[in-house]
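Tutorial, part two.
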Amino acid sequence: MSTHNMTEVLVGGAVLACAVAFGVYASQSTGLSQNRAGYELGASFRSLEGVGIGTDVRLAGVKIGTVTNVALNPETYRADTTFSVADGIQIPDDSAIVISSEGLLGGNFVEVMPGGSPFYFEPGDEVEDTQGAVSLISLLVKFVAGDSSE
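Running the prediction step on this input gives:
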């Protein structure tokens, strides 16, 4: 084999290795290769703007799970959501689930606001206390228009 062919093989191998590394990174960062360890909880939101499958679920700023399913409930017109919580993390049964923003230009995530109950959610339970996403555009429009009706 000539050195020209050997160089082409080495460059091709390096390109292939980079493509595989990028694929692994992309699947991990988008939640496609989620670790399914943990238990599932459900919640229903008025608005899930900016939240989808693979979105982080955080408690005190620490990731404790991910959103695993999102579906529109045709009877209530609310977004029914299922999310996983890591094993070993118990959430009080009077906790609230809120859609929070990382900032003006950041994405949204699901935040658990823990309550003070001595009882905890069981796998498959539904969280009743939820707050949907707040649209920054609608807030800006209200501010500019001077709408003080709310």
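The two ends are 77 Å apart (CA to CA). In part three we will examine how such features are distributed along the chain.
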